[in-house]
């Protein structure tokens, strides 16, 4: 009997834990749905604003994410940077980032994400059977004053860096730009403060994601997932599982209580 009681007790504890865990997962999915709904509202509100003309006098509070914007200035091609591991339709490639100089006197500029270009692959070498990655062919940068249209972003979208935990310098931005070897740096992520220090430019605290251009760059920029109905569906599933576990707990507890009362009745009838 004692063994049976212990088994029932353990089962009740496990079912109670399952109810708590499953219900917490459902609540977490509801919070994720609220977060995605807030992101969707932020994107819609940003795109609904009138286009902003970027100048050295543009106030920070006007640089709302997803807001349409336009900048006029000169490309500083010597400060271009390639952002590695940016895939497009399953193809590996880069984002090309180049600053646009808004004012030569104050060195005020805005960093522009100009678009995506594919990774170039050279034929395999004698020591390797697989093709090797080579520096991509960058599109020509128009000279003179140019007008660029796009949408604002608070920062360059980041990717997780596996080597960031190891403290190595792989994929890091050079201390100074242009690079000493004259090449275009390839980095995993790009932070505006570090980029401003390397270039000596005074950057607006936002990034312009270019949406139109005469070159061959692809400008299909990713946006955060905003399908909050999917999270609601997951929440319903977790709450359903929690309800099943709770029902099993009640059934088991009721049977254990009934058996206990039956044993007490039998003991009273047979002293």
Topology:
Layout: H1 2-48, E1 52-54, E2 68-75, E3 81-83, E4 93-103, E5 108-118, E6 120-122, E7 132-134, E8 145-153, E9 186-187, H2 192-199, E10 202-210, H3 228-269
Helix pairs in contact: 1-3
List the main descriptive attributes of the protein structure presented here:
single chain, alpha/beta, two-stranded antiparallel sheet
Provide a descriptive summary of the structure in words:
36% of the residues lie in helices and 23% in strands. The chain is an alpha/beta fold and 271 residues long. The strands form 2 sheets. Strands 2-4-5-10-8 form a 5-stranded mixed beta barrel. Helix 1 packs antiparallel against helix 3 (228-269). The two termini are 18 Å apart.
Note the gap between the termini.
18 Å
- Largest sheet entry: 5 strands, mixed, barrel
The whole-number mean of residue pLDDT values reads 86
| Structural class label | alpha/beta
**What fraction of residues sit in β-strands?**
15-25%
Q: Percent helix among the residues?
A: 25-40%
The beta-strand count equals 10
Shape: elongated
Spell the H/E element sequence.
HEEEEEEEEEHEH
Radius of gyration, in Å, reads 30 Å
Residue windows where pLDDT falls under 50 for at least 5 positions: 124-132, 162-170
Number of helices: 3
Sequence of strands across the biggest β-sheet: 2-4-5-10-8
Q: Compute the number of structural domains.
A: 2
């Amino acid at each position: 009997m004692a063994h049976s009681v212990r088994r029932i007790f353990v089962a009740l504890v496990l079912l109670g834990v399952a109810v708590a865990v499953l219900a917490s997962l459902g609540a977490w999915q509801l919070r994720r749905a609220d977060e995605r709904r807030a992101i969707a509202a932020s994107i819609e509100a940003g795109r609904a604003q009138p286009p902003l003309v970027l100048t050295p006098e543009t106030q920070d509070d006007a640089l709302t994410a997803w807001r349409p914007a336009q900048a006029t200035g000169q490309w500083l091609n010597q400060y271009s940077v390639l952002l590695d591991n940016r895939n497009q339709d399953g193809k590996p490639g880069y984002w090309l980032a180049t600053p646009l100089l808004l004012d030569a006197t104050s060195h005020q500029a805005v960093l522009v994400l100009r678009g995506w270009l594919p990774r170039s692959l050279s034929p395999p070498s004698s020591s390797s059977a697989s093709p090797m990655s080579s520096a991509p062919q960058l599109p020509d940068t128009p000279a003179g004053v140019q007008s660029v249209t796009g949408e604002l972003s608070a920062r360059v979208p980041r990717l997780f860096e596996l080597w960031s935990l190891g403290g190595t310098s792989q994929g890091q931005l050079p201390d100074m730009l242009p690079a000493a070897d004259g090449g275009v740096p390839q980095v995993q992520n790009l932070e505006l403060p570090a980029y401003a220090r390397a270039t000596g430019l005074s950057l607006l605290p936002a990034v312009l994601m270019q949406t139109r251009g005469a070159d061959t760059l692809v400008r299909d920029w990713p946006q955060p997932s905003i399908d909050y109905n999917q999270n609601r569906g997951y929440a319903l599933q977790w709450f359903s599982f929690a309800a099943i576990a709770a029902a099993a707990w009640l059934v088991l507890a009721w049977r254990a209580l009934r058996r206990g009362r039956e044993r007490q009745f039998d003991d009273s009838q047979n002293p």
